[in-house]
């Protein structure tokens, strides 16, 4: 996949799981504190490869923080995260001691993860195509022409090849988010993380982004999606994780999680969606 | 006014432009370094930068010029007055430009850098490809403004004996007894220079703007 093959760090305690069978992401005992506030309280979560996992939960429950730890934009204060079996950021020795991995190792493991943000975060001084090609040229050292061909292919994958020369300020929110998805896809990530990708979009633009994500899910990519779109989670998600107050309360198939009898906290959380008609989708 | 005298005024205006331009370029370079030092995590860098900025923003330029002009010979460095003048202008504008640049760098949304991080850009590549271009675009209007201020403030260097536009007008007024004429011509020339800079700035903004709408 990526041109820079990650160097495996041998585990002292457990035998290295084979990459083909290892889950896309394995989160073990991850805790995160900001100052005195404990935001994540020992999360264990397995994200299966080739499937869509949706992370739901009330506001402030720690969804973004968990996703950002998996992206290594935030460093977990406890526990370990592995990407297809390779430790991300820290390796844990037999005695539970965490040691920080080398920057090269961190970069190479991280390069297998793509991320799509709520605020799109497109670079305003580059065109749509420029945004998509930037890392191909700067990081992957591709020739400009080759990168642009690849960039155009990604833009057409999200239905925006006719907007290639537009700047972000000339695109609608939905189009900007699709460019951001194309930018992440261009690097051929093994796992694509989404943090509320439609939360800052008008309702009529939400659909076009969700459709692109549905296509990606159908193509067998590994997606981990933090979302408030319960309908999307219930229909596209193959695995649902419900986070509440920094703990993973539920994790299973949509049927297991949403089906009766419901966990009281989940039932309470879903109440807030009933008036939006999402319940009919369940 | 004879053509000969007008030519002298034009020559002085050119001198003002050249000295200001040199000061702005040197000032921008120093300003970038001071800005980098001020943004650095190490206090050994950020504290001197803060001191530099507060001194050169807090002391009147006229006083700075007289200080430098008198200080250099006192510590055994003899330089032509024009060099002292350029040093003074450069250091003064550096302090302002450092602050403008810092504002620009701090206004780059954090999310844009996280996005760069996620696609694997190294810190240096992020600076070169994302932070600096966005920060400079955000700072451009303030930098043009600063250039215009320096052009006008350069009239102060006449106090250390540099014959730039204002000093030339003064000299010619004294020798011809026609101050109104020469100060009017000087004012007109300053206006033309500043309009040109402002126009250039507007053009630069148009060329670097990121939408054709
Ligand atoms: N950088 C930070 N510093 C301090 N506290 C933080 C920081 N980031 C998040 N928090 C706190 O951590 C808690 C969880 O935040 P997080 O953003 O992960 O929640 P969330 O589940 O994504 O919520 P939402 O649905 O509103 O996006 C919140 O109480 C928040 O205030
Ligand atoms: Mg969030």
TrEMBL record, chain A:
Its main location: membrane. GO terms for molecular function: ATP binding. It is found in: Cell membrane. Belongs to the ABC transporter superfamily. The keyword Repeat does not apply. It holds the Pfam family ABC_tran. It comes from the Bacteria. Keywords: Amino-acid transport, ATP-binding, Cell membrane, Membrane, Nucleotide-binding, Transport. SUPFAM superfamilies: P-loop containing nucleoside triphosphate hydrolases (SSF52540). Residues 1-12 have a biased composition (Polar residues). It is a peripheral membrane protein. InterPro entries: AAA+_ATPase (IPR003593), ABC_ATPase_HisP-typ (IPR030679), ABC_transporter-like_ATP-bd (IPR003439), ABC_transporter-like_CS (IPR017871), MetN_ABC_transporter-like (IPR050086), P-loop_NTPase (IPR027417). Residues 1-22 are annotated as: Disordered. This is Amino acid ABC transporter ATP-binding protein. Residues 25-270 form the ABC transporter domain.
From TrEMBL, chain B:
Its main location: membrane. Keywords: Amino-acid transport, Cell membrane, Membrane, Transmembrane, Transmembrane helix, Transport. Residues 13-198 form the ABC transmembrane type-1 domain. It is found in: Cell inner membrane; Cell membrane. The chain crosses the membrane at residues 12-37, 49-69, 75-96, 138-160, 180-204. It holds the Pfam family BPD_transp_1. It comes from the Bacteria. Belongs to the binding-protein-dependent transport system permease family. HisMQ subfamily. This is Amino acid ABC transporter permease. It comes from Jiella mangrovi.
